[in-house]
Specification:
There is one protein chain. This protein is mostly helical and 337 residues long. The chain has nine helices and six strands, in the order βααααααββαβαβαβ. Helix 3 packs parallel to helix 6 and helix 6 packs antiparallel against helix 7. The longest helix has 32 residues. The chain starts with 5 loop residues before the first strand and ends in a 45-residue tail after the last strand.
């Protein structure tokens, strides 16, 4: 069956927009190692890119569901959801090591992203994942009535409406949303002081650095895979007119991505290389050379960790209540790179 060749929507996924996304993805990891002070700014920029593109997608679909071809929506979702796919290999690693805190890359970020940013990023993740479910349930099956084929990516060229491919994506996004619900429930229990977890042990800096390198390697591998998926999907479906830089809509995101990379290089060259680890919200750093207690000192490292209620210093002799466990719970945190 012939491929559904057509002229693409450059305002949604033109060359400049795509390169802008790609550069921002790599910039987050590059800044983590070379210019930690720039990490949160780049994270925010990436989230704005995602939110703006996703909002435009929602508007296009709400005005007329046929404004975009099925494969066009698929490409846009690769760009908006690709940033969150970084968590897939890391959560897989967590399962393989049995959630051992000493082997968890999430507990040792270079830069703490902040609870407000993480909460907003979590909401964006849920919104995009929910749209993905609608897309695979309602939009993709419409290809069955077409006289031509549209192709997606699963480490090879695959028909978008192939039943196994549809089911795989539906199951994946259903499990993802279920995980988000579990994370939210755990956060509520944590704030109520009903859940505690063992403290993160003191680790040698070489061990922590290995975990951070593992996380960065996973991020680079996932970003490279998403880039390949996006560009190959455009090529396989013979989409025309989306590989030029002939408008401000293409050059603006492109230049923002380039500026992010240049800013990182500038900070590294003219402000000196960063010290090995960042230990606090304010950018203060540890002075110890051999051991690492986590980004916030000896407490477990987790962006959404809240202290459990502490036992009073002096308890009344008449009290019959059991001591309250002192601890912190660390849960999977959406939005951290």
């Amino acid at each position: 069956m012939a491929v559904c060749s057509f002229a693409g929507n450059t305002d949604m996924y033109g060359l400049g927009i795509r390169i802008g996304f790609y550069l921002q993805w790599f910039a987050v990891d590059l800044a983590s190692w070379l210019a930690p002070s720039e990490v949160n700014t780049i994270r925010l920029t990436v989230s704005i890119f995602i939110a703006a593109t996703f909002l435009a997608l929602i508007i296009q679909v709400s005005l007329n569901v046929s404004n975009l071809q099925v494969v066009e929506v698929y490409i846009i979702l690769l760009l908006t959801f690709g940033y969150y796919l970084f968590f897939v290999p890391l959560y897989t690693w967590r399962l393989l090591v049995g959630y051992d805190p000493a082997l968890d890359p999430f507990r040792f970020p270079h830069v703490w992203p902040g609870r407000v940013y993480s909460a907003l990023n979590f909401l964006l993740l849920v919104a995009v994942a929910s749209f993905q479910l609608w897309f695979w349930f309602a939009r993709v099956p419409q290809l069955n009535g077409q006289s031509c084929q549209e192709y997606g990516f699963f480490f090879a060229k695959i028909r978008m409406n192939k039943k196994g491919f549809e089911v795989l994506n539906i199951v994946f996004y259903f499990l993802l949303l279920s995980s988000c619900a579990i994370v939210l429930s755990m956060t509520v229990l944590l704030r109520a002081g009903l859940m505690v977890e063992k403290r993160t042990p003191r680790l040698r800096r070489t061990h922590v650095e290995s975990l951070q390198k593992l996380r960065s390697a996973c991020n680079v591998a996932v970003a490279s895979t998403i880039i390949a998926a996006t560009e190959l999907t455009i090529k396989w479906n013979k989409i025309r007119g989306v590989n030029s830089l002939n408008s401000a809509g293409q050059t603006i995101p492109l230049l923002i991505g380039i500026a992010a990379i240049l800013r990182i290089v500038y900070v590294f060259l003219f402000h000196g290389p960063p010290r090995p680890y960042q230990d606090g919200h304010d950018g203060s750093r540890s002075t110890e050379d051999d051991m690492y207690d986590g980004p916030f000192g000896p407490r477990p490292t987790s962006m959404t960790a809240f202290p459990a209620p502490r036992e009073p210093a002096r308890r009344s002799r008449r009290s019959t209540s059991a001591p309250i466990t002192v601890g912190v719970t660390a849960i999977p945190t959406p939005g951290r790179v």
